[in-house]
Amino acid sequence: MKKILAAMGGLTPPLHLGCLIVLLFALIAPSYASDSTTLYLKAVRLEQEGNFDEAYKAYRQILVTDKTPTIYLKLADIDIMRQNIDSAYTTLQEARKAYPDNVEIAFRMGVYCTDRADSVDNDTVWLKEAKVAFQDAANKDETEQHLVALAMIVIRLKEYDQAFAIYDKLINELKLIEYYRHRGVLKIEIGKKKEGIADLKTAASNKDVQAMIRLADIEMKDNNTKAATKYLEEASKLQPDLILPDIYLGEIHKNTDDYEGAIRYYLQAAENMDGKMRGVLMKQAGGLALSKEDYATALDVYQRALKDDSSDPQIYYLAGHSATMLKKYDVAQNLFEVGLSKFPDYAMLRKRAAYNLLMLNRPKEAIEVISKVDAIERDLEYYLLLADAYSTADEHNKTLATLRAGLVEYPDSFELYMGLASEFESVKKYDDCIKALKEALRVDPNAASAQNFLGYLYADLNMNLKEAETLIDSALKQEPDNYAFIDSKGWLEFRKGNFKRAYELISKALEMVPEDKEILEHMKIVKEKMGNKQ
């Protein structure tokens, strides 16, 4: 380029690239008369400036004296840019008539006709004209480009024999092995599956990665995951930056319950992606880890995802949730705070942040966070969390008010009635507690937790002991190894005066939870009653 500039008289830089192209054309196109050259330079400049109408006039003026293929093609291009589609066609027809042996003009006519067919719902008239033009170009110059263009058109015209003949030529004469794959795909599409697979296997044996992926897809549809995995692993090895094999491998491992393998391949695919799709794959991997309760892996994946894409509020939620489940409450809180600073209206994030604050024993902050949930998104979880926060903060009136407000929205909520019962018990309003528990059992008559709660309360209050026994026995039948239920049964036996049996049951419960204060207190009372004050 420097030598060319020097030969042009040492032009002072910088030069616009378009100017260089124009000047170079002047050097390499001496066949133009000086007037035509000047006009051509003007036309090119106008075209580059986007002044297509004036550029078109200039090229038309040149065509009067210099009917070259280049000028015809320039005119057709400008017509297309100006949306003068019919004029472009007329120009190409003129060019074909003026230069019947010009390959580029024939090919350009084929492209034009193909585009017209696409714009009018695959019009076969335009497809047939495209075929004539591409055939002309291929007859004059059997290049890959010309043959492939012709093949695509005859396939659309369902002239499959000619398409196969073209692929045969590409394979046998031009030695382009990848067209085994194209031929194989076409055979499968028209019902010649066995022959098509044979072609795909030939392509795959020549390290055609796309053929391997096609074969893997076929094997997956036939539930032959072992063969599919083999093809995909080979494709991934040959082309590590290709995403599809790893995504397919992730799906195969997920469907065969190999979650570690699935996560590995999803993350491998994500490494070769950017933006939102990378985030989607990272979330997929994290979701699999969560489904296996592998919270450490989930947290790591989501934190990595946030480094690439911090525009998805759900990733903050999932990362924080994973940290909470690992009891890394401070880590979770940081994630929630950053997330809420960006997405203050994301209700799921607020609720999970409030729960985490309760785990940190910061109920007042939890109340502040969850109270900002928009009214339209105040679901059952909202009322339960807010009530829990008020209860932890010893604001019992607000706890009860919250639970009752929740019942207005969710009148058959078992959880809200159980919450009410627990709160009434804590403030020693036993009649109200019993009413709430009976409502809970109305909603779910077989709920073991409610049966045990009511049965234990009766035993503790030394009332309705026969009903208490029915309730506790029903709960134990459902969960025979529940230490709380076993303790309730022992306490009931104590109330009935069966101290030895009470001792046996409460001892069994203590073996499960030796440090439980309430059960230890029961044991102390039983021993005292038995005359053993250890």
List keywords for this structure.
534 residues; single chain; disordered N terminus; 31 helices; mainly alpha; elongated
Task: Summarize the topology.
Elements: H1 2-7, H2 17-28, H3 34-48, H4 52-65, H5 69-81, H6 85-98, H7 103-119, H8 124-140, H9 144-156, H10 160-172, H11 179-189, H12 193-205, H13 209-221, H14 225-238, H15 244-255, H16 259-271, H17 275-291, H18 295-308, H19 313-325, H20 329-342, H21 347-359, H22 363-370, H23 380-392, H24 396-409, H25 414-426, H26 430-443, H27 448-461, H28 465-478, H29 483-496, H30 499-512, H31 517-529
Q: What would you note in describing this structure?
A:
The chain is mainly alpha-helical. It is 77% helix and 0% strand. It has 31 helices and no strands. The chain has helices at 2-7, 17-28, 34-48, 52-65, 69-81, 85-98, 103-119, 124-140, 144-156, 160-172, 179-189, 193-205, 209-221, 225-238, 244-255, 259-271, 275-291, 295-308, 313-325, 329-342, 347-359, 363-370, 380-392, 396-409, 414-426, 430-443, 448-461, 465-478, 483-496, 499-512, 517-529. Helix 5 (69-81) runs antiparallel to helix 6 and helix 12 (193-205) crosses helix 13 (209-221). The radius of gyration is 39 Å and the shape is elongated. The chain starts with a helix and ends in a 5-residue tail after the last helix. The model is unreliable at 1-33 (pLDDT under 50).
- Sequence stretches where pLDDT stays below 50 over 5 or more residues: 1-33
| Cα radius of gyration in angstroms | 39 Å
Question: Considering DSSP H and I runs of 4 or more, what fraction of the residues is helical?
Answer: over 70%
The main sheet comes to: none
Distance between the termini: 102 Å
- Mean pLDDT across the residues is 89
The secondary-structure class comes to mainly alpha
Tally of individual helices: 31
Oligomeric state, counting identical vs distinct chains: single chain
Strand content: under 5%
Strand runs, count: 0
3D shape: elongated
